[in-house]
From TrEMBL:
PANTHER family: ADP-SUGAR PYROPHOSPHATASE (PTHR11839:SF1), UDP/ADP-SUGAR PYROPHOSPHATASE (PTHR11839). The lineage of its organism: Eukaryota, Sar, Alveolata, Colpodellida, Vitrellaceae. SUPFAM superfamilies: Nudix. Residues 45-64 are annotated as: Disordered. This is Nudix hydrolase domain-containing protein. It comes from Vitrella brassicaformis (strain CCMP3155). The keyword Transmembrane does not apply.
Length: 241
């Protein structure tokens, strides 16, 4: 097995100034040094203060708080009487003027861990009560909470944790899920069987739904992992022959 070791470059942000605010977003002008020492400018959006937090001071730091802004929840629905399914939400998103297919997601409140935020957001948006997906490990590392991940680093500082949860449909508390939505939220729930996920997403895209890129990449990863296993088997057989 080979690995690639990357080294951080010398580029860095010199200053960051908020030029406009709207609802929960800020537009900021950034002055930074590139790897050749040139001073350059760019702009980006970032989340404003989270609930209960004080207004941030301007400076080279890029966000009003440390850590990820939000969580996205990969929820696996399990049952003894149904095939495993994944849980998604459909909602209208004005910035893209379309209905989108996304993971359940939301902001991390002050004092919350990513896991606590994921459990809360899952319950609020879908009504389901989840639990950490046990047995998801790579080596000795539990992977039901991801590292802090960037979303669209060319234009925003927003970052998230991806949290993997299990929803036991056989548990009585999940027999009649009831959403707890904010007044402005209008969210529908989609349950899609794992083997048909990519095909279903392609069909939804054909009906003019916009698919969150993380959802599509997740679906493609499921397909690609099977392809990679097949190619590895072919390679092993060819070497043996």
């Amino acid at each position: 097995m080979s690995s690639t070791h990357l080294h951080a470059g010398s580029a860095h942000v010199v200053s960051c100034t908020t030029t406009a605010r709207a609802l929960w977003l800020k537009l900021q002008s950034i002055l930074y040094k590139d790897t050749k020492g040139n001073t350059r400018n760019c702009a980006r959006t970032t989340a404003a203060e989270r609930r209960g937090e004080a207004v941030d001071e301007e400076g080279p730091d890029t966000k009003a708080h440390s850590g990820a802004d939000a969580v996205a929840v990969v929820a696996l629905l399990t049952s003894h009487t149904e095939n495993p399914k994944l849980l998604f939400v459909k909602q209208f998103r004005p910035p893209v003027n379309a209905y989108t297919i996304e993971f359940p997601a939301g902001l991390i409140d002050p004092g919350e861990t990513p896991l606590q935020a994921a459990l809360r957001e899952l319950k609020e948006e879908t009504g389901y009560i989840g639990e950490p997906l046990e047995g998801s490990r790579i080596g000795n590392d539990v992977v039901h909470v991801s590292p802090e991940l960037c979303l669209s680093p060319g234009m925003t500082a927003e970052s998230i944790h991806v949290v993997t949860l299990k929803v036991d449909l056989d548990d009585e508390k999940n027999h009649h899920p009831k959403q707890d939505l904010d007044e402005e939220e209008d969210i529908e729930i989609l349950r899609i069987e794992v083997p048909s996920l990519l095909r279903e997403l392609d069909a939804l895209a054909g009906e003019n739904y916009r698919i969150f890129d993380g959802v599509y990449l997740f679906a493609y990863g499921l397909v690609f992992s099977g392809l990679a296993d097949a190619l590895h088997s072919e390679h092993t057989e060819a070497k043996g022959g």
